[in-house]
Design brief:
The chain has 14 helices and 18 strands. It is α+β, with helices and mostly antiparallel strands and about 425 residues long. The strands form three sheets. Strands 1, 2, 3, 4, 5, 6 and 7 form a seven-stranded mixed beta sheet that branches. Strands 8, 12, 14, 15, 16, 17 and 18 form a seven-stranded mixed beta sheet that branches. Helix 12 crosses helix 13 (about 400-420). The structure holds magnesium ion. Magnesium ion (MG) binds near residues 123 and 180.
């Protein structure tokens, strides 16, 4: 055992461990375990009734165990006596095939067998709201063009710097913080890393932002479109593929400095975008961010079409500089493990099939999109995306049939629950028909 958690607890003065896992909807579940009991938990995992969370398990299933990955041990910066741990979920002596972290690790192993390693960075946009989530927290934050507003940023100095200081202390390489394009919206950036490291940090960042905002009497939400008319919260992912120290996406001779392999990877994400949307845009609310009408600030910054470009933010994929691309489709509701897994699955498929991403479009897609006759549209709602997801052989082959079935079942359930609501708009529009 490389890291003995019981010993580490003594060295770091940890009194408790928070053994966590993520269910399919990205909800973090946990048991708070005293340091005195961690040795057994490290070996056998913390027990859970899997049915009680979003995993499509049955109440008749045996105990599910979250076996912590000691490499992820992170003392909570706001409660340093507690050590956070990410876990893989197991049942009946084997990993649960549709456990989100298990799925990502399987994809990473598949890439490693080809000598490939995906690195990624994520940009987690979020709103700071009132505790009930109904309004942004700062009534003075009402500019029509609020992006990079220094006064609105500095009015949230205590929260933002507590989060940034935490990331610095954890060695994430935090390097900038800003007010984003919607009133009440912020973004904080840290260095890219291996896909699994980034996914674990993404999970932790959301947990930390919510916890620290709450301690300041606020609420941090990653909801994709909490306020109609304002820009939504995306989760842009910057992707590159490596062999050792060599970035395989970089090629000085390639268009925009991206290699053939890089374009095949992009081709895979383009070919499977509609099915990927069910994972990258996983909620009913997600579709109010993409395909949205122009916002108060003048642009949604979210894609409407399955297209790619150079350093141009009106497309699904942007190539900002040589050696990497930015996938702009995902939003704040995305499950961090499934985000990385879905992109890697699609990218590997593109590489395997040498998928051509088609022509690059160097136009403003928001104003001139109508001039492109055959640009594929993104799904217009969760139901559209789920139908594409269900019909996707990539999903079943790469992310697993077990995952495909469980995710579709739970997400169709969510759609049906939403569709069963009679809205005020519906009544107003139909009452006098
Ligand atoms: Mg942003």
């Amino acid at each position: 055992m490389a890291i003995d958690l019981a010993e580490t607890a003594k060295e770091l003065g940890l009194k408790y461990f928070l053994i966590t896992y993520l269910d399919l909807f990205g909800v973090q579940r946990a048991k708070l375990v005293p340091a005195a009991a961690i040795a057994g938990m490290q070996k056998n995992g913390a027990g859970f009734a899997g049915f009680a969370t979003w995993l499509d398990l049955s109440p008749a299933d045996p105990d599910m165990f979250a076996i912590p990955d000691p490499a992820t041990l992170t003392p909570l910066p706001w409660k340093p006596e507690v050590g956070w741990l990410a876990s893989d979920i197991w049942m009946a002596g084997k990993p649960v095939g549709h456990g989100p972290r298990v799925i990502l690790k399987t994809l990473i192993a598949r890439a490693a067998a080809l000598g490939l390693q995906m690195k990624s960075g994520v940009e987690c946009e979020f709103f700071l709201t009132t505790p009930d989530g109904m309004a942004i927290s700062d009534p003075h934050d009402n500019a029509a063009k609020p992006c990079y507003d220094s006064n609105a940023l500095m009015r949230r100095y205590e929260v933002i710097t507590e989060l940034c200081d935490a990331m610095l202390s954890l060695g994430w390489g935090a390097y900038q913080n800003d007010h984003e394009d919607a009133n009440g919206q912020f973004e904080m950036n840290w260095n890219y890393d291996d896909a699994l490291v980034t996914a674990d940090r993404h999970v932790f960042f959301k947990f930390m932002a919510k916890s620290i905002a709450e301690a300041h009497g606020l609420r941090a939400t990653f909801m994709p479109k909490p306020f109609l008319g304002l820009t939504g919260s995306g989760c842009h992912a910057h992707i590159s593929l490596w062999r050792g120290n060599e970035n395989l996406f970089a090629d000085e001779a390639g268009p925009l400095g991206v290699s053939k392999l890089g374009y095949h990877f992009i081709g895979g994400t383009i070919a499977h975008a509609d099915a990927l949307a069910a994972v990258l845009n996983p909620t009913v609310n997600s579709y109010k961010r993409i395909n949205a009408p122009r916002t108060l600030s003048g642009a949604t910054w979210a894609p409407n079409t399955v297209t790619y470009s150079g350093n141009n933010r009106t497309h699904m994929i942007r190539i900002p500089e040589p050696g990497r691309f930015e996938m702009r489709l995902a939003d704040g509701a995305v499950n961090p493990y499934l985000l990385q897994a879905a992109l890697l699955a699609a990218g590997l498929d593109g590489i395997g099939k040498q998928t051509d991403p088609g022509p690059r479009l160097d136009i403003n897609m928001y104003t001139d999109g109508h001039t492109v006759k055959d640009a594929k549209r993104l799904p217009l709602n969760l139901l559209d995306a789920l139908r594409a997801f269900e019909g996707s052989s990539l999903v079943k082959e790469s992310l697993g049939a077990e995952f495909a079935a469980a995710y579709a079942k739970l997400k169709y359930g969510e759609w049906h629950e939403y569709a069963a609501h009679l809205s005020a708009w519906e009544r107003q529009a139909t009452l006098d028909c």
